[in-house]
C-alpha cells in the first residue's frame, strides 16, 4: 500500500503557527475543490500531538491561484472567493480553516490601471510568463525579488543545474542541522 501524501506548490508556516498552502493551477481540473480540501487535511493532521493534547488547532489557509474560472462562477465578476465554514444561520462556525480561490482570467486591468498591491500581484500572476522587463508599476523590492527568482527559472540548462545543485547542498546541510536540533530537543 502506498501512503497518500500531498505535494504543495508552496507550503509555509506563519510566525504564530498558522499554515499556508498555495496552489498555482494553470489548467482546469475536475474536483479541484475536493483536492484543495483534501490537501488542507494534511496540516490539520500534522498538528496532532502525541500524549495529552487538547485538540486546539492553528489556522490553515488554502490559497488557489487559478488560471481558469469555476463553472458555477464563470458569469459573476468576483475574482476572489473566500470560503469559510458557516452554520445554518450563515454565522462563522469555525474560523481557523479558510479557502481563498483567485480566478485570474477575470482580472482585466492594464498596467496603467493598477492601484493596490493586490492589483499588482494579480497582474504579475496573470502576465509574468509574457513580461520581458519589469513594468514601471512593479518597482517595489518584493517584485524585484520575484523577477530575480523568475530569471533563475529561465537560466540556461547548465547554469540552472549548478544553481539547483547549490540549493540541494544547502538543503542537505540545513536538514542535518534541523535533525540535530530535533534530536537534542527530544533528548531534553
Fold and architecture overview:
The chain is built from four helices and five strands. The chain has 188 residues and is α/β, with parallel strands linked by helices. It has a five-stranded mixed β-sheet, with helices on one face. Strand 4 (80-86) and strand 5 (92-103) form a beta hairpin.
Salient structural properties:
188 residues, single chain, 5 strands, 5-stranded mixed sheet, alpha/beta, flat
Brief rundown of the structure:
The protein is α/β, with parallel strands linked by helices.
What is the topological layout?
Elements: E1 10-13, E2 19-25, H1 32-46, E3 60-66, E4 80-86, E5 92-103, H2 117-127, H3 141-153, H4 157-187
Parallel strand pairs: 2-3, 3-5
Antiparallel strand pairs: 1-2, 4-5
Instruction: Specify Rg, calculated over alpha carbons.
Output: 20 Å
The outline comes out as flat
Proportion in β-strands: 15-25%
The pLDDT mean sits at 83
The CA-CA distance between the termini, in Å, is 35 Å
Kindly report the spatial arrangement of strands forming the biggest sheet. 1-2-3-5-4
Quaternary organisation: single chain
Q: What is the tally of beta strands? A: 5
Detail the poorly predicted runs. Answer: 1-6
**SSE order, one letter for each helix or strand:** EEHEEEHHH
Approximate helicity band: 25-40%
What does the main sheet amount to?
5 strands, mixed
Tell me the structural class.
alpha/beta
- Number of helix segments? 4
Amino acid at each position: 500500500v502506498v501512503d497518500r501524501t500531498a505535494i504543495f506548490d508552496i507550503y509555509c508556516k506563519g510566525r504564530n503557527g498558522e499554515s499556508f498552502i498555495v496552489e498555482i493551477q494553470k489548467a482546469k481540473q475536475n474536483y479541484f475543490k475536493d483536492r484543495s480540501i483534501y490537501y488542507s487535511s494534511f496540516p490539520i493532521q500534522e498538528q496532532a500531538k502525541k500524549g495529552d493534547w487538547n485538540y486546539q488547532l492553528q489556522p490553515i489557509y488554502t490559497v488557489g491561484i487559478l488560471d481558469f474560472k469555476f463553472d458555477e462562477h464563470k458569469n459573476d465578476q468576483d475574482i476572489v472567493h473566500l470560503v469559510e465554514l458557516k452554520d445554518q444561520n450563515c454565522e462563522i462556525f469555525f474560523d481557523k480553516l479558510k479557502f481563498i480561490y483567485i480566478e485570474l482570467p477575470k482580472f482585466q486591468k492594464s498596467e496603467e490601471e493598477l492601484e493596490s498591491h493586490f492589483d499588482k500581484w494579480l497582474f504579475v500572476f496573470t502576465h509574468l510568463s509574457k513580461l520581458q522587463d519589469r513594468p514601471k508599476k512593479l518597482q517595489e523590492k518584493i517584485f524585484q525579488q520575484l523577477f530575480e527568482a523568475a530569471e533563475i527559472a529561465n537560466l540556461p540548462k547548465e547554469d540552472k543545474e549548478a544553481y539547483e545543485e547549490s540549493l540541494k547542498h544547502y538543503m542537505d546541510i540545513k536538514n542535518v542541522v534541523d535533525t540535530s536540533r530535533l534530536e537534542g530537543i527530544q533528548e531534553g
